[in-house]
Amino acid sequence: MAEISLRRAKSIIRATLAEGREMDLKPLSVIVLDAGGHVKAFEREDGASPGRFAIAHGKAYGAVMLGMSGGAQMARAEQQAYFMAAVNGVFGGQVIPVPGGILVKDKKGDVIGAVGITGDTSDNDAIAGMAGIESVGLTGDA
Amino acid sequence: MAEISLRRAKSIIRATLAEGREMDLKPLSVIVLDAGGHVKAFEREDGASPGRFAIAHGKAYGAVMLGMSGGAQMARAEQQAYFMAAVNGVFGGQVIPVPGGILVKDKKGDVIGAVGITGDTSDNDAIAGMAGIESVGLTGDA
Amino acid sequence: MAEISLRRAKSIIRATLAEGREMDLKPLSVIVLDAGGHVKAFEREDGASPGRFAIAHGKAYGAVMLGMSGGAQMARAEQQAYFMAAVNGVFGGQVIPVPGGILVKDKKGDVIGAVGITGDTSDNDAIAGMAGIESVGLTGDA
Amino acid sequence: MAEISLRRAKSIIRATLAEGREMDLKPLSVIVLDAGGHVKAFEREDGASPGRFAIAHGKAYGAVMLGMSGGAQMARAEQQAYFMAAVNGVFGGQVIPVPGGILVKDKKGDVIGAVGITGDTSDNDAIAGMAGIESVGLTGDA
């Protein structure tokens, strides 16, 4: 499968943060994971709280591991809370099922990684991330 | 950013416990964490139960790592329970999202640490802690 | 059994830190646990690294739980490393078996708690702690 | 104490990776933590194995939490293996005590964060990281 390169990962992060500034959001933190769920790149803006790495990671990690966007996970959590709680259990508490966890797909529709954004409201996090992903010609599933 | 000194941390604890005596609260336990979420000082009053360190720590730790006061975390937990449960997961179960976890800010508005108070009702814990923080000229966000 | 009061715990810490200044040691961190191994009080001097709470706790906790001073634990670790490693395992990795973990005993010889000191060399940590304990009329087993 | 900015963190990483290319090292992964041990930025070069985030993090995290460079931790591990193993325990297995974990200090000598590098030999990792840190006018303690 196509790998997400470090160059592309950094471009996604740069564009996401630029969108955040454009939207006048609170300081954002953005992570990019590869298709195996492993950290490729991360940046936490000045002024973001110390725990934002963990939250960004949780959003992206759940998306990759389940093949479900943050929005889809949240819908599931609201319908069947105990299921998402159990899913979180088998993944060692590492999943955060809310918007801001975005699957990244290439032209063929294959998942090549995920982006996790946190810092503002979940919905704004997702908007900024989608802009970042689309800016490099990839497709996001938020 | 300004560090919270040991002297200031102890003054906050002393004043918080004094307020607790003034309000005739149950025995209190008070922790002060620095801006990175690391323990600076702690005192558990005689008669307080053995587990109070963990609870005081959980209140303050969640506040620092998320940049959200205990009151704000509780509001979020009531709106979106699975989100706060997931957040607790990525922080290894160390977050207790209720009043009594207070962000401490300096004159410029920067977070320099957090105070966690437990022992009476959460609301009374928070009142005592705010008195402690204000007594040293700092601002609390409860 | 006699409880170690908050007043006594704070006096031990104060005297330990004063001894550290007297001996011109690096910034110290001092914890006092009660006879059940639960945190009573803690202070981390300015300039001490963020992880010092965990190390001070580990020294005192091993002492209380095993009824063995840090010095005795170290001797055991050097003779039978796998045993102390296993002991650490059953206590969730919370034991640090080196000098600086001091059992505190009252006049009757009963253990009423433990003190953990860290920041300088283990031997100097223990010397400062013994001074702190003896200054309040208690007996230390280092 | 001075915060390490995202801009500076990225510059350190860029310069470290450039040094790695100059030295013809294997693909490197570089993390920057702030003074509280929290992730500020990270990059994993293409071709680096999936687990490199954890190793880079472990090197930098141990350095910050203990206030000891990777080289100093390794020396301690070689003299007193059970001590470093126990230290790893109290930090949840998150400490990797070898060269490549470098404390970052500002002009006043205060620790403002740490850099963790992994991918080639530990010694080469450390050389690349020192070049990265010095390129932004900061001091590294490897």
TrEMBL record, chains A, B, C, D:
Pfam families linked: HbpS-like
InterPro entries noted in UniProt: GlcG_carb_metab_protein, PduO/GlcC-like, PduO/GlcC-like_sf
Recorded superkingdom: Bacteria
Protein known as: Heme-binding protein
Organism, scientific name: Parasulfitobacter algicola
